[in-house]
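Can't paste images in this forum, so I'm doing it all in text. The chain is below; anyone willing to post the predicted structure tokens underneath?
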Amino acid sequence: MPVREKYTIIIFTGIIIIFNFKKFKMISLLNLFKLMEEKDASDIHLQCGSPPAFRIKGNLVKLEEYGKITEEELKEEIYKLLKEKEIKIFEERGTVDTSIGIPKVGRFRVSVFLQRGSISLVARRILSKIPEFSQLNLPPSILKITEFLNGLVLVTGPTGCGKSTTLAALINDINKKRSCHILCIEDPIEYLFKNEKAIITQREVGIDVPSFKEALKYAVRQDPDVILIGEIRDRESVEFGIQASETGHLVFGTLHSANATQTIERLLNFFPPNEHQQLRKILSLHLKAVVSQMLIPSCKEEIKLVPACEIMFVNSSIARLIEEGQDEKIQKAIKMGKEEGMQDFEDSLLELVNKGLITKETALKYAENPHSLEMKLRGIFLSEEGIIT
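Text version of the structure:
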């Protein structure tokens, strides 16, 4: 394998001594992407002055055998990867996001950006095959969402929590069961769908359409039944999601919020306070479900990470709470909605422990209220009437 040589130079009076102290592997993005597959890494981080790093089972692992990457070699490798249009965007804005497919290697979601004035890259490996819902260790009740014919459905959580994978599995489930037109507006496209019962149109912002705003403008003219609008970024995308659901479309979106209560708050924050009451009324009518998730290290070697989920279906009780601004009562309503397929994070963690997918210690680490979860793990459940064992 080609190597890069690093030297130490010591200068004495009139004498230059050069020591060859180490040889490092050559930087090749293609080889690093192949290595991600071999090591089952989810992400790669490339930064000038540091060795490459993989995220494996949630932890960053540096590949010291490559040594510190220089700006020249990193820029050369990244520019080989990008299209001319993407290079132009990067040089104008200092950042560009894209997705790439490498034959016999896989697909990757790539973000190129500047930090400290130097080029950097973070890429996420995308599963080449859209996973079956049954493979994701998600609660079966989430599949109720695929039966909705209209309304707004949000999948929320922090970056890297599996929102895109969950949405892809839900979209593909509809694709297999329903004769309809599914329109996906993506920035960038991640999973590539194949038409089954449905016809799926995937439009990539910056490639197929100039902007997200432009894509939304023409979306309803393209005869969709189901619309995936990706991340809810601003007031305009919220308004589009609501208007499309009002006119009989099923709309999917994502949001960076931790739970259902925070999701309502985030949606309201896109609007001035004098419009909040009207928005609450609209959400109470057209918001159908919020699935919030986070990924947790599994104790099973072959699984790596499993999702813990909060699931809220907007029934009449929750719709009233949203409309009346009683958001603090939503969590209790979710707890009371188990028969309708709802669950909170605590119940999700409990189930994952009982299934042997995570350890008790891991569950307690991720629990919002470790004491309450500890009692449930011991078989002690609290209700308003008292203790139930």
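The CA atoms of residues 181 and 199 lie 5 Å apart. The mean pLDDT is 90.
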